[in-house]
Write a structure and sequence with these properties.
By secondary structure, this protein is mainly alpha-helical. It has one domain. About 80% of the residues lie in helices and about 0% in strands. It is built from 9 helices and no strands. α1 (about 1-15) packs across α4 (about 40-65), α4 runs parallel beside α7 and α6 crosses α8. The longest helix is centred in the N-terminal third of the chain and has 27 residues, at about 40-65. It is elongated and about 50 Å long. Pfam families: TetR_N. Keywords: DNA-binding.
Length: about 180
């Protein structure tokens, strides 16, 4: 899965060749086809694996939070940021998953995983709809910042909150 994730992170669903994944994994192209059936099926398995890694990071942060003080949403955001800092492939695959959602099968699978992640956060934290929305908006900023390898503090939750605060007055004026 790691080899496929790295290849998809680099080139996305459309640009990645199964031959490149096979070579990276040290197996034959026919073996990859035998195991996964199609490039899209393998991509969806990689996307599922990436979303599971995020879910696992949130579960670990929730368990660790029992002994800490402060908002659980902040702990989840910190866990997500640390995951992306350790492995930029997570951010890149997530962005490629959203980009490949022109394909209805990909869209349905990615939407289901994204909504499940939102429910996980809402259930774990008890946050209201605006809190969950803000959390995921900040998370998207962190994802993009990580994918772009922006330096240092550009990937922290405080920066994401600052950007969202800049947008809030404009949104309020439009109403």
């Amino acid at each position: 899965m790691v080899s496929a994730a790295a290849e998809f992170a680099e080139s996305g669903l459309a640009g990645t060749r199964l031959e490149a994944i096979a070579a990276s994994a040290g197996v034959s192209h026919p073996r990859v086809v035998q195991m996964f059936g199609s490039k899209r099926a393998l991509f969806l398995d990689v996307v599922a694996w990436i979303f599971e890694r995020v879910t696992d990071a949130f579960a670990a942060a929730t368990a660790a939070h029992q002994a800490e003080s402060g908002p659980l949403l902040v702990a989840l955001g910190d866990a997500y940021r640390r995951l992306l800092q350790r492995d930029r492939v997570v951010a890149l695959v997530m962005l490629h998953a959203y980009a490949a959602s022109g394909d209805a099968t990909v869209r349905d699978e990615v939407a289901a995983r994204y909504l499940a992640l939102q429910h996980t956060v809402a259930d774990a934290t008890g946050a209201d709809a605006m809190g969950v929305r803000t959390f995921f908006a900040t998370g998207l900023l962190v994802t993009v910042s990580s994918a772009l390898a922006l330096p240092g503090k550009r990937t922290d939750a405080q920066w994401g909150a600052w950007v969202l605060e800049l947008v809030t007055p404009a949104v309020t004026r439009e109403r």
